[in-house]
Amino acid sequence: MIPVPEPKLDHLYQEVILDHNKNPRNFKALADANVSSHGYNPLCGDDYHVYLKIDPKGLIHDASFQGSGCAISKASASIMTTMIKGRRAEEAGKIKKSFLDFMIKDELHPKDKPYIERLMLFEGVKEFPVRVKCATLAWRALEDALKQYEFEHANVSYHMFEKGEAKEMDEIKLSAEMTPNPNTIKFLVNRQFLESGSFDFPTREKAKDSPLALKLFEIDSVNGVLIGTNFITVTKEPHADWQTIAPTVATAIQEFFASGGEAISKDALPSANEGGNSLIEQKIKQILDAEIRPAVARDGGDIVFYGYQDGIVTLHLQGACSSCPSSIMTLKMGVEHRLKQAVPEIKEVVQV
Ligand code: ZN
What we know:
The chain is α+β, with helices and mostly antiparallel strands.
């Protein structure tokens, strides 16, 4: 890790941070969370998941976090969970906004001060930009999780259709999940359209094998589609707004399946994901299929095996992963580490 400067904090504040670092509150995964998000700070190595259980009326019943990182990031996450538990999602959003404005823009409206009184202990951190990332990491993850909640909440209407088609359309259920890449949303569908693997369509030109991808590319600002076994991840252009695109995408997916469309043309199956079968390759594929791909799929992406030669494994990142800033890190630290562990012959993992 890169050495980062230690901010000089008031003694009392230092104690609070150390206490939360040593005994983090709500430090666990939340099995019944309905939204969660991941925050990662490559500069310091802070890496946390934030979990929320929010009821349909918007009350945060439970909040927790899990992961590892420096004392500042951990204390901030710990304090955050205690502050938002039992509050309404909007209130949590307000606290989050006030704190981020205070830390990042150095703005604090006097009427917001009582909201973030408990967070004033991070004031001394502001002089150290790297450490500001530590203090705000969990709050950024909270921001994503709240967006996810709003998004799912605002789109209950996905399941409702007018006209005569109503009955048939109702059977196709979608849920949407934000991914670590803010430009990518993963749409889960209540049916399986591929036996295994995935198909990545980074451009419209490459989508000719997929009637579904072609249809989605007709939507303005859609610039990437990945089709997995029971999910579709859609990537939008960075300037475009999900509020307008997401409902259109969801409706298009529902209509497509309701009219009996095939996600991938029959003649394009099976996937090109086959080939050489040396023992090492088999072993690599086994680990990818059993451990790594399911984990990556949860974030709306996929990793495809391209080849193995002289100790070098070549992989291709698809979907949400491919343009996510932390993907290289994931590949290097996670995948490479795991593969090396299982196959000592492996020297390096590279991506194409
Ligand atoms: Zn940190």
